[in-house]
Amino acid sequence: MFATSSPSRPIDHSQIRPAVRSLQSQLVEWRRHLHQRPELSFREQLTAAFVAHKLQAWGIEHQTGIAQTGIVAVIPGRQPGPVLAIRADMDALPIQEENQVPYRSCHDGVMHACGHDGHVAIALGTALYLAEHAAEFAGTVKIIFQPAEEGPGGAKPMIEAGVLEHPHVDAIIGLHLWNNLPLGTVGVRSGALMAAVEAFRCKIFGKGGHGAMPHQTVDSIVVGAQIVSALQSIVARNVNPIDSAVVTVGEFQSGTASNVIADTADLSGTVRYFNPAYELFFAQRIEQVIAGICQSYGASYKLDYWRLYPAVINDDGMTELVRSVAATVVEPPVGIVPECQTMGGEDMSFFLQAVPGCYFFLGSANPEKALAYPHHHPRFDFDETVLGLGVEIFLRCIEKFGNLAKGQAVDEIPRTITKRSGSKEAEG
Ligand code: NI
After folding, report:
1. What domain range includes position 415?
2. Known catalytic residue: 219?
3. Ligand 1 centroid – CA 115 distance (Å)
């Protein structure tokens, strides 16, 4: 309805798909170029240079060097309107690629094993389409190319550097290619999509000695084992069973010989939860458990605790926008998985704390082509058909966001979208 009453020329839906299809070979080319040149967190120099070079060639205004290697591009439509940001993360992982493909990683021990190469290609395809069709959309699109999602996190420093201002971003969307879903399936939900991520490292100080004379020692392995067991009771007995949470001890190192009682033991672990009410809870409870056990055994400890990423919480209105757009792009049998959720974490959460938005999964697995290894696996790869789908979903979100928000106060945008989504009129 807004589209037809608007003086701007609405994006012609029948044109988007063919235009995106004609981009497909370039999307694959960019993705493979990046796949061959993976870079670790905050070292995405080649990646950033590649992105900046493309933006420059397409005449897109952009700023580089934000939070070290981040880039933000600004693409104004011809009609005034709200500002929508799209976020793509750029970093790779310290994994040796085992795929034998022509585009396998040229960087020893570094691999795009999470699909961020695809995220950059999709964002570039979106940017290129918008630059070529500025007359067809209202509002402004900011594209945020973010470093270091895999840690320590590039979203927060980018926000601190002001990427959500000048012009002020009204809402944000982002996607993660997802091999846990079949190709083309969209996984999205309102509220918590991904978990908060916290980590801890604990050193237990006992008193070493002869394995045959334990009465002269404080056995740090026994103390550590008690701690590992007791930590399991936090989720089982302290967290409200309605809420989901995980406490995993992933490392336990101690000892040097079978007949020596170890002086010290090192533990490290990760904590996950959705409900922000637990923001301070785990750090406190884990320390209580460790302190209590150490005291009862006569050991001491040093605990480091990090609250890394908050939970990814999607805005109701923006989720409805993504869902309604996805419904027009992906067709059965794949369709939309409405209550998709994972205990994995993402620093997209910082953007979603700052502005309303929606992060979603786009299924990229294709077992028939042997493309179904999980993320972070040395043989991870995805079906590149998904790249065009990602661009199409972004473009339709942009079109719908610009049109729907026209003439509305910015703070009404999410509510307005919620009200109108699902109605045929709102589809324009
Ligand atoms: Ni990832």
Report:
1. 13-193+311-427
2. no
3. 6
